[in-house]
Design a protein that fits this description.
By secondary structure, this protein is an alpha+beta fold. It has 11 helices and 9 strands.
């Protein structure tokens, strides 16, 4: 009975644990869906409001990125609309002349003069920075490193916000060359640290160059900037992977993933991100919205994009999203501890053994008493046989009249009386 009671208690505890886990999963799904819908609505309003200027996001802002989806191509966050800058013919001519003298003729003085003429002929800031970069390069080859450092130092401020066709900033080129020259390296390092701390969604080529430069700086500011930049590079690489795998987004169209009118969210990446497709209007191009699951998850809850032994699928409205609860969150609680069952069974066994011992002792005593009675009766019977035999013998002799005289009869009677 004790074993059966323990088994039933374990089954009830397991059932209660399953019910609690199911209720917690339903509540988590409702809360997460509501918060995601709120964030999505805010982003839709922001996209619809053209006059809204988006400043720097707070550190705990859950939106990772919003990218338009145009003709089955993801417009990446760092793909800025760069105006096509056409160089003037005179600038292009002087640049070609300088490159020919620098690389073909090793005429560094002539190349420097040609680049100077290109700088004077530049009609836009990007051409001017390109000419300065060429001047600095040829000055280094001509062993005029101090002058080259001055050119590069000026470029840190003059070319700060510019990017070339490849997405690289001329100022970063200048910072990298200042660091390699070992002159005014502190200014270059400060520029890279400041840019890494303040920039968001820089092109990958810039991010990789800044990371390599920051690894050479041993200041706490550089370490903090490197950590921030490394996280951004991780996000950039994951966005590029998503852009190359847009077929995954087709899974959001499955009708059974969510109720009508509700969004479907796809878990993507190792964090993971919660990705959906939204649109401000039926005629406008869709946009991909990615939200960090870590920044919106409940305390102690871990989201995963792949199943594990301890995870459960979140269910309706979420694709490939699994939730992992803290260890011991739904551990079965027994009403009666196993040790109490063991103590009860041990008490019953001890009580049974003691009762059996007392019963056996009483039975042994009864047997001993019965044997004593039997022995007593046998002894008494044995002791009575001899006098009774003598009495019977004398009584029979008297009854048969075999006593010859009075004196003999008196002796027989006296013997019987004795």
């Amino acid at each position: 009975m004790a074993t059966r009671l323990a088994h039933q208690d374990a089954e009830l505890a397991e059932k209660r644990m399953a019910d609690e886990r199911r209720d917690a999963l339903d509540q988590l799904r409702r809360e997460l869906a509501a918060r995601l819908e709120t964030i999505k609505l805010q982003e839709l309003n922001r996209l619809a409001d053209d006059s809204h200027s988006s400043g720097p996001a707070p550190p705990d802002f859950p939106v990772v990125f919003v990218a338009p989806l145009v003709q089955n191509r993801l417009f990446l966050p760092w793909d800025r609309l760069r105006q096509t800058v056409r160089s003037s013919p005179r600038f292009a001519q002087y640049q070609r002349e300088g490159e020919a003298r620098e690389f073909l003729g090793n005429d560094f003085a002539g190349a420097y003069d040609a680049y100077g003429q290109a700088l004077a002929a530049a009609e836009n800031a990007l051409d001017r920075c390109a000419a300065l970069l060429s001047e600095g390069r040829v000055l280094v080859k001509a062993e005029r490193k101090s002058e080259a450092a001055g050119v590069y130092s000026a470029m840190l401020h003059e070319c700060d916000s510019l990017e070339d066709r490849d997405g690289m900033g001329p100022a970063l080129y200048a910072a990298e060359r200042l660091a390699s020259l070992g002159r005014d390296a502190r200014a270059a390092q400060q520029y890279v640290v400041k840019r890494a701390q303040t920039s968001r969604w820089v092109p990958p080529v810039q991010a990789y160059l800044m990371r390599s430069l920051l690894r050479e700086v041993a200041t706490p500011e550089a370490k903090h900037a490197l950590e921030k930049l490394s996280q951004e590079i991780h996000d950039v690489e994951q966005i590029v992977a998503l852009a190359n795998d847009l077929n995954r987004l087709a899974r959001l169209d499955f009708p059974f993933h969510a109720s009508p009118g509700k969004s479907v969210w796809l878990a993507y990446g190792d964090e993971p991100w919660l990705v959906t497709v939204m649109s401000t209007a039926s005629f406008s191009p869709p946009a991909v919205l990615a939200i960090s699951s870590k920044k919106i998850s409940a305390p102690g809850v871990t989201f995963r994009a792949t199943a594990s032994a301890a995870s459960l699928p979140l269910g309706e409205g979420f694709v490939d999203l699994h939730v992992e609860w803290p260890v011991g969150r739904f551990a079965p609680v027994r009403a009666i501890p196993p040790s109490l069952y063991a103590a009860g069974i041990a008490f019953i066994l001890i009580f049974t053994m003691v009762a059996g011992y007392l019963l056996l002792r009483d039975i042994s005593r009864e047997i001993e008493v019965a044997e004593m009675r039997s022995h007593f009766v046998a002894s008494v019977s044995h002791e009575l046989k001899t006098p009774l035999t003598a009495i019977r013998m004398f009584a029979e002799t008297l009854a048969m009249g075999r006593a010859v005289d009075e004196r003999t009869r008196s002796e027989y009677l006296q013997t019987v009386v004795n």
